[in-house]
Give the backbone structure.
Amino acid sequence: MDYNHFVTEFYTFSKIDLNSYKEGQMKRRIDSHIKKSGISDYREFLTLLKTNPKAYETFLGYLTINVSEFFRDPRQWATLEKDILPGIINVTKTFNVWSAACSTGDEPYTLAILLTKLIPSQKFKIIATDIDKDILAKAKTGIYPDKQVINLPADYKSKYFKKTTEGYIISDDIKRKIDFRQHNLLKDPYPSDIDLIVCRNVLIYFTEQAKADIYTKFSKSLSSTGILFVGSTEQIINAHDFGLKSKKLFFYSKA
Ligand SMILES: C[S@@+](CC[C@H](N)C(=O)[O-])C[C@H]1O[C@@H](n2cnc3c(N)ncnc32)[C@H](O)[C@@H]1O
């Protein structure tokens, strides 16, 4: 079985289209994972993935690098807080936020911390999604090692976290604000009327075609005043082609 055949067979049972991820990078990662698992070829590996749910989840976690942290790229979070949010928050309606590909939850919890400062708690809703079920389970526990809270301002740390031997535990008030759900950006339906979509540090793994499809769907998901916030290496070159317009570096509105 060659790589392309593996990708086709993997899609049949997982509905994850590895063709939408950049091939060189993905193949290297898969080959190295197979080698580490002590398996000799794609066919044997496919059988393992089909028959062993744990091996399947481990593989998924490995494929989709889960690195995250609170206030990742602090300058952009400052722009969000000072320049973007004041212009789009309308206290007469619920402010709907979607943190897409949220990994361990640092990003949606960061959003909840910021929004708590700006809007009464019952006036905003945050859905946080990821393809990886295990990572969502971890996100729900809200426990973080030092390295993930390194950019977290001290006042937030003392207000919303408890330091324990397991790590920093986020407060129930913030935890309660997040609705974690499993969602595959490549195939599942997108929510609508979203005032802020935060999707960072995942589209870099996708092919140009997959990115184009996702941007177009994001544009449809946004409310009329909604904003898409992307990662620091993920500027959208032809935003107009996807129904988007640059508002500020790394921030886009509906065109
Ligand atoms: C590097 S993390 C980004 C976390 C966070 N957004 C940040 O910037 O810190 C990438 C996440 O994308 C998720 N992911 C990969 N492919 C996905 C897909 N097709 N749909 C949804 N999430 C996906 C992975 O599971 C992983 O948790």
User: Anything to note?
Assistant: Residues 74-88 form the longest helix (15 residues). The chain is about 45% helix and 20% strand. The mean pLDDT is 94.
